[in-house]
Amino acid sequence: MKDLAVHLLYLNRQAHNAHNFASGPSFVGDHALFNDLYDAYDEAFDQVMEAGIRAGEIKRTDRKAIGVAAAEKVTETESVEDDFKVLSYGETVLCRKLAALRKRLEDSEGVQKLLDDLAGDSQNVRQYKIEQRLG
Hints:
Layout: H1 2-21, H2 27-54, H3 63-73, H4 80-104, H5 109-134
């Protein structure tokens, strides 16, 4: 679950940076969408951290390592379009991580529901919105 937490924190930072640097003719819509995305990643990160701590998969001593690993994944981009492409790919990776973790932790019903909810939010909400924006 630690790897999933790192990925969600990375997506949060990537979306927050995109939010801060949004510009151009679609600024208002892009700025709002990036805000929605980083809020969603923040909430998902919080849920994964809590579940990981409860399951003994994430320890107090992992805090710094998670933050550093997430920061190292942040990608420099040249444009708002690139920001959306990076986040779209990040969502694809997220779904792969969720599926792998679901198989590994199949004995935990509560964690399974969380992972299913996170996958549904990714596929049915965020990926849809990002793809709509990319056209």
